Structure formats: structure tokens, C-alpha cells
């Protein structure tokens, strides 16, 4: 044990994943008392680059890495703190995550499962090169870990979503779980609007933003492998369901992914809206997807073709 | 150098590589030793979207399936990923990651992969292509960057002049080739006055068997922390339960 | 960024036996507070890193009040501030003290 105490009033099982901090999520998802942190805050591994931008550093650089147990199973874990610098990949945060995954590759005695609690806008611009390169290193390490038989599961449901390098990182993992509030993509709506104009993407239109990048659409089109309720128990259950039988990282898997992505492009390439895509998927009342509760969504999603696959 | 100049210089024994109307680079070059090089890439600063990823990834998968072990050269001049609502709606993150994974799989199967940045390279398109190779080289004049300074100024809400001043001293942050080399992303910068085919062969002979970019960044002083952090996390992870220093 | 260091002699050691605690996050209007039981029983040292200038007196007042209320003897307290209001600072300090008071 690191002996690190954290606030625990918000980590009851029904607490919102979206609203929780990264540490609360770890406490909420792992078996009680099982979390052991590597390079904990007391070691003060901070970014040396933020001060020149007059920005405060954090004692963990917004990246918490360690190990714990999930329903009795040993797992390695990494969690991004989306409230600190948008959970961004940077020199320290990226190095910690890279170290964790490389340790799993090098030491077969370490747990054969890694949970990535992603909550990140992508690369930290104040450390842009280090952050970008960290993502590249992490993506490479993830596929090497997968080749070594490690299941790498991404959990997406935090306030910063998983964009930019975090979006690519998620799609490099063996599996992805996402909640209704989870958002997954590359370029965020604000950046598209700034660069391409409001007629391309109105970032103020919350319903539009949600339909394009949100968890339900991602799950329906096979961009995520499990749909989690926005609670600690919800993500715990989703993670457990995804840890077993991850797709192998091999030619057959990537050929299947090629086919899957080409098919998606052919099927939805002309769609103007996500609702149109959901209609093509055979959902009787696609307009209703937005407002139904989680149980109703899971029920109508159950029959959708192509949603469950090993092509990742 | 134009793409055609580079290709002619790289493959004096001949090639059929060209950029199509979609600005995707596809083709095969001949090596001096008679072997072939599979070439994929993106030209003219074109953004990489889902329509661009599919043929490039398909080519890489076909090369792997063919099983001849030929090197793969990834030539990159792209302003970044396509910024469009529809690409995002269809899951561009999966497409870009798919291309990166295909390149990593090629390496895993013994195909050396070399990235050549000869123009722009940015953001998600950079991760999907050149940064997913075994070794990345560049030609002088290449402009790798995560984001240009004016865009960065908008996002960080810092004055552009401040950013420009900082970019002169801080390789972890500065856009451009020199900084990307210092942090370890770009392994070598080729000399355009010397024959490129010989430099390509020399690069191929130097393809590292594992990811050395953290060590390179430390050795060059542009990214001093990563390699050390990787070691420290591994030491605590493999040392069993971490005993906190009191 | 500026750094403030404050030192106190407390009337008693911090109760409980938790060795360290972390509360809050570094986010706009918020702060993180790391508390570590590493000092002699009646000493308390506080180090504050903040981008906000000109609030030394406010920090001094908030910390003095906290030391008076919680008697955090033995604690090294390290703060990364991101423009938190004094009431938020006071709240985080008390949350941290509560965690350190835990006995196990």
C-alpha cells in the first residue's frame, strides 16, 4: 500500500463516473484497498515545463498508474485526470503510462490486463512534441503488449472524453467501453468549428456534438465494444466483461478491421447525421435514441448487426 | 525537393510510385540489389481522412499477406487529420489507429518500416503514418509539428509572440524539424545533396528492433525525462508492492 | 508561478496515523493539497505554488486559521493552486486534515 488517503465520499458504487476525479474512479472501480500506485504524488514527479507558461503543475501530472484487483483479478491500471490540463499526454504523464505498459510487456509475472481510464483532450500543447511522441510510443507499446497476450481495455466516460491522441490510443486497445456521456473522436467540435466554420460543425449544438462523438453512437456503429452505465459499478461491470478473450493482435484481426471500417464507410459515407446512421442500422425510431434511458438503449441496441466484433 | 525529384533520387533503378488525384502515394520502388520497396504515403499537404486511410492500410495488409518481407517506406506531407464532421461521425479515430496498427503489424512480421517526412506532418495524421514506423527520417525543409503557432495561440490563449519566444528555447514544445529531432521523434535528417538511395539503404541497415525514441530524446537532451520515468515505473511495478518512502 | 513557504509551531501533533493524503485536483478555481506526516510533532510546514500574484496575506490568513483549528503538528503540506478562492482552500485543508486524522 502507498498509504495514500483520498477523499472517498464520492466513490460509492452509484457515483457518477463522469463527475468523479481520476482517483475516485480508481477507488470506485477496484476492489477496496487493492490499489497500489507507482510514482505516487509524494514522489512529486511534476512537469518541469508548465511553469514557463505560468501554469501550475500537479504532483502526478494528471496520470495515475499502478496495480490493483478487479473482482479478485490482478490488473494494471492507468487513469488520466481530465480536470488537470484536460488530461493531456505530456512528457511526464506520457512517460508514466509508457512505463506501465512496457513493464507489462517485459515482465510476464505482472498482471495480463491493463485498464486505461482515459479522460483526455489529446496532446498537451505546452509540451506538444513530447506529448505527441508519447502517444506514438504508447500506441506502439499497446500493440506490443497485445502481441504478448496482454488485454488492454480503454474506459471512456470522463469530462474531457478521449480526443486527439487519446482517441487513437483508445482505438489501439483490445477493447473499448463507453458511457452515454463518453465522447470519442480525433478533432474536437470546437477545433473543427474554429478551422472549418460553424456550418461544418456547430460546437454549441450540444445534441449534435453528442450524436457525432457520444457513447451511444459509438456503441451502435461498433466504435466501442461495451456500453457502460455512468457509475462506478457500470464501468466495473463493463471492464470485467471485456477483459476475457480480447481479440489477438494479428493479420486476421486487422484484415477484419479493414473490412469492418470499409463497410462502415460504404454504409454511412453519405449520411448527413448520426440519426440517419442509426436508421440504416435498423433502429425503428432512431430519433428516440437520444432521450431513452440506459436500459431501453441497451435493449434496442441488442439486435444491431456489426456492433459486436473482434475486428480491433 | 518535389515528390518526383525525391522518388527519382531514391529509386534510380526505377519505380512506379505516384500520388493519385486523392493525393495518396502508392507504388513500388526498385532497390539497387534488385529488391523492392513498397511505398505508401500522402502528398501535397493533403489532410488524411477516412477515405484516405482505407487504401493505404489495405496496401500494407496486402504486403504483409504476400510475405516477401520487402521494406515499407511511408512518405508524408500532410497538414494533419481531416477536420470534418462526417469523418468524426464515422469514427476517424478508429481509421487512423487502424493504419498505425497495420504499420506496426508489418514490423511485427519482419517488414522494416521507414517514415520519410518531406513536407508537413501534424497531429493525428502524423501518429497514423510516420510516427508508426520503425524509424522516421526527414529531409531539410520538412515541417513536422503538432500544431502551428497561431492555432496554438488560439487554443492556449497565450500571445503568439510569447509562444514564438518560448519555441526558441524549448524543444518539447517548439514546432519544426530541429525540435522533433531533439525529442527523438526524427532519427535522422538526410542530406539532399547526397544520393538518397544510399542514405535509404543506410537507414534500413539501422532500423532499431525496439522503440528507441525515449533513449534518443534523452541522449539529444530534448526529452530528458521519459526514459528515466519508464525505468522508474517498471522498477516499482516489478518490485511488487511499492513501499512508499517515508 | 510564485512559491510561498510558511512555517508554524502547533500546540499539538495532528491526531490519527494516516501517513499521507491528497485532496483536490489542479483545475481552474481549485487546488490540490498533499499532506504528509514527516515533520517533528509540533511543526508544520506549508509550501504553496500558485500562478496568482499578490495574495500572500490571504494565504497567510487562511493557513493561520487552519493551523489554529486543526493543529496539524507533524505535517508537511504542499499545495498546487490554480486560482482557488480562500473558502475552497480552507475546505480542502480541512478535508485533508480529516483524512490524516484517520486511524487504522
TrEMBL record, chain A:
EC number: 4.1.1.87
Keyword Lyase: yes
Stretches of the chain forming a coiled coil according to its record: none
Statement: the UniProt record of this protein carries the keyword rRNA-binding: no
MF GO annotations: lyase activity
Domain CoA carboxyltransferase N-terminal: 1-251
Superkingdom classification of source: Bacteria
Keywords: Lyase
Short name of one Pfam family: Carboxyl_trans
Alphabetized NCBIfam families for the sequence: malonate_beta, PRK07189.1
Protein name, entry field: Malonate decarboxylase beta subunit
Species in which this protein is naturally found: Azospirillum rugosum
Automatic annotation (TrEMBL), chain B:
Entry GO MF terms: lyase activity
Keyword annotations: Lyase
Residues spanning the membrane: none
InterPro entries listed in its UniProt record: ClpP/crotonase-like_dom_sf (IPR029045)
E.C. designation(s): 4.1.1.87
Protein's UniProt name: Malonate decarboxylase gamma subunit
Organism (species): Azospirillum rugosum
Phylogenetic classification of the source organism: Bacteria, Pseudomonadati, Pseudomonadota, Alphaproteobacteria, Rhodospirillales
UniProtKB/TrEMBL annotation, chain C:
Subcellular localization: Cytoplasm
Record's keyword terms, sorted: Cytoplasm, Phosphoprotein
First-listed, main subcellular location of the protein, grouped into a coarse class: cytoplasm
Coiled-coil annotated residue ranges, if any: none
Name of protein: Malonate decarboxylase acyl carrier protein
Organism: Azospirillum rugosum
Source taxonomy: Bacteria, Pseudomonadati, Pseudomonadota, Alphaproteobacteria, Rhodospirillales
Amino acid at each position: 500500500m502507498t498509504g495514500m488517503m483520498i477523499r472517498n465520499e464520492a466513490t460509492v458504487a452509484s457515483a457518477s463516473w463522469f463527475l468523479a476525479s481520476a482517483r475516485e474512479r480508481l477507488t470506485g472501480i477496484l476492489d477496496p484497498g487493492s490499489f497500489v500506485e507507482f510514482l505516487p504524488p509524494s514522489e512529486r514527479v511534476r512537469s518541469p515545463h508548465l511553469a514557463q507558461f505560468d501554469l501550475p503543475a500537479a504532483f502526478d501530472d494528471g496520470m495515475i498508474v499502478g496495480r490493483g484487483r478487479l473482482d479478485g483479478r490482478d490488473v494494471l491500471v492507468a487513469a488520466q485526470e481530465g480536470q488537470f490540463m484536460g488530461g493531456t499526454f505530456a512528457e511526464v504523464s506520457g512517460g508514466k503510462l509508457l512505463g506501465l505498459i512496457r513493464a507489462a510487456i517485459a515482465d510476464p509475472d505482472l498482471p495480463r490486463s491493463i485498464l486505461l481510464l482515459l479522460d483526455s483532450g489529446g496532446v498537451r500543447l505546452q509540451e506538444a512534441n513530447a506529448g505527441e511522441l508519447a502517444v506514438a510510443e504508447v500506441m506502439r507499446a499497446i500493440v506490443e503488449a497485445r502481441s504478448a497476450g496482454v488485454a488492454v481495455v480503454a474506459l471512456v466516460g470522463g469530462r474531457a472524453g478521449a480526443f486527439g491522441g487519446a482517441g487513437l490510443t483508445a482505438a489501439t486497445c483490445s477493447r473499448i467501453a463507453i458511457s452515454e456521456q463518453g465522447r470519442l473522436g480525433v478533432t474536437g467540435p470546437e477545433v473543427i468549428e474554429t478551422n472549418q466554420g460553424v456550418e461544418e460543425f456547430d460546437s454549441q449544438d450540444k445534441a449534435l456534438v453528442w450524436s457525432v462523438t457520444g457513447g451511444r453512437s459509438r456503441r451502435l456503429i461498433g466504435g466501442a465494444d461495451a456500453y457502460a452505465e455512468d457509475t462506478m459499478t457500470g464501468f466495473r461491470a463493463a471492464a470485467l466483461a471485456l477483459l476475457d478473450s480480447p481479440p489477438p493482435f494479428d493479420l486476421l484481426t486487422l484484415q477484419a478491421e479493414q473490412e469492418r471500417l470499409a463497410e462502415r464507410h460504404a454504409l454511412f459515407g453519405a449520411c448527413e447525421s448520426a440519426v440517419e446512421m442509426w436508421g440504416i442500422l435498423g433502429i425503428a425510431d432512431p430519433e428516440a435514441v437520444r432521450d431513452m434511458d440506459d436500459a431501453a438503449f441497451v435493449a434496442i441496441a441488442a439486435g444491431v448487426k456489426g456492433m459486436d466484433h473482434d475486428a480491433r | 525537393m518535389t515528390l518526383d525529384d525525391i522518388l527519382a533520387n531514391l529509386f534510380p533503378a526505377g519505380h512506379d510510385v505516384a500520388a493519385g488525384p486523392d493525393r495518396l502515394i502508392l507504388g513500388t520502388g526498385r532497390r539497387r540489389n534488385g529488391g523492392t520497396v513498397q511505398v505508401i504515403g500522402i502528398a501535397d499537404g493533403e489532410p488524411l481522412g477516412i477515405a484516405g486511410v482505407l487504401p493505404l492500410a489495405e496496401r500494407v495488409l496486402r504486403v504483409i499477406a504476400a510475405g516477401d518481407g520487402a521494406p515499407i517506406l511511408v512518405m508524408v506531407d500532410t497538414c494533419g487529420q481531416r477536420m470534418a464532421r462526417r469523418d468524426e461521425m464515422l469514427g476517424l479515430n478508429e481509421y487512423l489507429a487502424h493504419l498505425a496498427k497495420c504499420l506496426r503489424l508489418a514490423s511485427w512480421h519482419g517488414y522494416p518500416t521507414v517514415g520519410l517526412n518531406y513536407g508537413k506532418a501534424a497531429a493525428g495524421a502524423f501518429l497514423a503514418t510516420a510516427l508508426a514506423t520503425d524509424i522516421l527520417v526527414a529531409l531539410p525543409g520538412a515541417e513536422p509539428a503538432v500544431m502551428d503557432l497561431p492555432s496554438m495561440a488560439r487554443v492556449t490563449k497565450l500571445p503568439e509572440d510569447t509562444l514564438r519566444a518560448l519555441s526558441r528555447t524549448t524543444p518539447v514544445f517548439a514546432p519544426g524539424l530541429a525540435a522533433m529531432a531533439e525529442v527523438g521523434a526524427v532519427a535522422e535528417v538526410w542530406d539532399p545533396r547526397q544520393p538518397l538511395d544510399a542514405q535509404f539503404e543506410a537507414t534500413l541497415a539501422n532500423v532499431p528492433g525496439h522503440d528507441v525514441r525515449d533513449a534518443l530524446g534523452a541522449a539529444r537532451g530534448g526529452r530528458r525525462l521519459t526514459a528515466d520515468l519508464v525505468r522508474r515505473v517498471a522498477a516499482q511495478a516489478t518490485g511488487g508492492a511499492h513501499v512508499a518512502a517515508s | 508561478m510564485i512559491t510561498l513557504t510558511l512555517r508554524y509551531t502547533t500546540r499539538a501533533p495532528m491526531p490519527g496515523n494516516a501517513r499521507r493524503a491528497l485532496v483536490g485536483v489542479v483545475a481552474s478555481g481549485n487546488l490540490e493539497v498533499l499532506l504528509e506526516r514527516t515533520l517533528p510533532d509540533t511543526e508544520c510546514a506549508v509550501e504553496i505554488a500558485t500562478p496568482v500574484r499578490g495574495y500572500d496575506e490571504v494565504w497567510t490568513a487562511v493557513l493561520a486559521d487552519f493551523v489554529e483549528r486543526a493543529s496539524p503538528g507533524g505535517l508537511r503540506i504542499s499545495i498546487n493552486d490554480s486560482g482557488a478562492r480562500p473558502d475552497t482552500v480552507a475546505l480542502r485543508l480541512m478535508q485533508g486534515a480529516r483524512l490524516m486524522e484517520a486511524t487504522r
